[in-house]
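User: I'm preparing a small set of examples for a lab meeting where we compare how different chains pack in three dimensions. I only have the primary sequence for this one, and I'd like the structure in token form so I can line it up with the others. Please keep the answer compact; I'll paste it straight into my notes.
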Amino acid sequence: MSDPHTPQLLDNVWKYSLFDALYARRSRRFGLGFEMTEGPFRYKSKHPAVPLTNIEEALLVGAGAGFSGLALWDLSTPAPYRARSGRTFPSTTPGGHTTLFFTNDAGFYVLDANVRANKLREIETPDEREKILATYRESRRQLSRGRLDIPRRAPPYSAHDLWDSNMPGSTLFMPVCDVTRALISLIAQFVDPELRRYASATGGWNIVDDRRGSCPTGTERWLKSGFLDPKRTMPLSLLERQACYYTFSEPGAICQNMLLATEALGLGGWKHCGFLSLEVLQRMGFRIVATGPTGFGNPIGLDGVIEACCPPFYASMDAAVDSVLVPSLRGKASSDVVPHRIPAAEHRAGVISVSEEGLACTKAICNYIFETYGRFPAGTDAMHLMWFVQVHHIDTDYYDRFFNRGAYGPTHASHMLTWHRQRYGDDHK
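Assistant: Understood. Below is the structure token output for the 429-residue chain.
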């Protein structure tokens, strides 16, 4: 970076105590330029809104959804994945199921996830810390100009968030997760004993449609052949909920990481879910496939950015299943850097892959879902936007007026002077 102060700023952030961040973390909703017009804390900021700088946003993105180095995948049965970057949030698949979107005064952005790691820990020394800034610049893609227009009404907002969410000067982070890949993978794990996950030597699970009298889900052929065990039944609705559990931890971890980072940077903000996501996703440009008698649609993705494993992004459900499972079936050798000492070829010799029958059975179930319900998944959305994290510069005057000492910390008190060379707040007068 050209700013000579950047190394010192990075050093301050890196040295901030994790446990201080955990125990000091608070929702601090009142920012510079904000106004609260009702309630016991009515107040209008005397200062103009100040947008986050690129370095502030880069550190928040790096904390929430950064690329930290090679994932270990230290499993008894090697995962059939090519070496990819580990992330700062935990995931059940390389790269994760979640895409991070964000908006500020200048535009609406997405963080591209196609970053390759070169070693176990991408940032090991102080000299390497500026990688987090370079990665941010290279991975941030602008989707449109200006702040994302989320209607300031209820709905989509809950009325109590109308005064403070997506305000000028703030950056609003929106992690969107895709359930479809997890569902396809989970179906395969339940039906195919070769994957050595949930199915056993006696056969795979009989996945039944509990919404339709527990009928078979296109699996009659495999029940007849004994590939599936008719005595071991798994309701489809339960399997779809489990696929959600596999993915929903990711956006939650991303949000928490960002909030902890605000303590180290001295920024304000909070995580909130006071909105209805369908209209927000529409404003973001997502495709919404109308299905069912209710008229509510299934958000299936944003073209070229995040796309669900189902038509129209794939020619068929067979092709969608192949996109998830066939790479593991091929078991390609990789020339990528690996985190372990044994050669890549030796490691991959132990990879467990889906069988031909398991692949065919998984396709049959996925086709049943899509053909029966006109959507995939059947009973939950393909894409989920559950939380916003907003980050902004807090107005310390507001907190000094209404709250006891300790409502904000030293990093907040000194932030404008340290990061912006400006003096704001009663403490500096």
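A couple of notes for your slides: The chain has two domains: 6-178+246-281+385-428, 181-242+301-381. Confidence is low (pLDDT under 50) at residues 329-334.

User: Perfect, thanks.
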